[in-house]
Amino acid sequence: MKLPLDFYTHGNVLHITRNLLGKYLMSCIDGIVTGGIIVEAEAYNGVVDKASHAFGGRLTNRTKVMHRQGGIAYVYLCYGIHEMFNIVTSTEGDPHAILVRAIEPTDGIDVIELRRNMPASKPAITSGPGSVAKALGISRKINGFDLQGDVIWIEDRGLGFTDDQIIAAPRVGVDYAAEDALLPYRLYVKTNRYVSRPLKQPK
Length: 203
Prior knowledge:
Blueprint: H1 5-9, H2 13-20, E1 24-29, E2 32-44, E3 72-78, E4 82-89, E5 96-107, H3 109-116, H4 129-135, E6 152-155, E7 166-169, E8 186-189
Antiparallel strand pairs: 1-2, 1-6, 2-5, 2-8, 3-4, 4-5, 7-8
């Protein structure tokens, strides 16, 4: 059920982001499996995207993982507090990435509740990228890990969403990216209560 390598290396980053919705993000940390349905994700379009860590071809100790072949984890620390899990896509030297912003918990819910110190009935448990990483035990220790491995991976269990169930909206917290901050690169399932920042829908 794991997504094959070519899922991550073929197609543009927006297309891959769209296809990630409905897939299951899974982790096995210290022998404990947890996971959930990806319901919100943001695309970062490499060297031409002012919101991307790799904009302009930036290559640092942090961003070098983004320049590797797609199909690996990119985990970084935000604000000195939150671990942020991203999926590297495309081919080597083309640093595209997708930030997973929200999941609907499905596997190992008791462990997720313990890690987050709240019941799964509260959407905040896995709403927002920091919450996703904490719930699944993801940290920078798995930065660069192969998504074909047994620590972090993504599964296809046959769940899908139609285009009219998905909203495309601007990304969150990238005001520094000028006009690129307005790009509709955040995709989410509009009826899912775990989505971190749904747009207000007209009545």
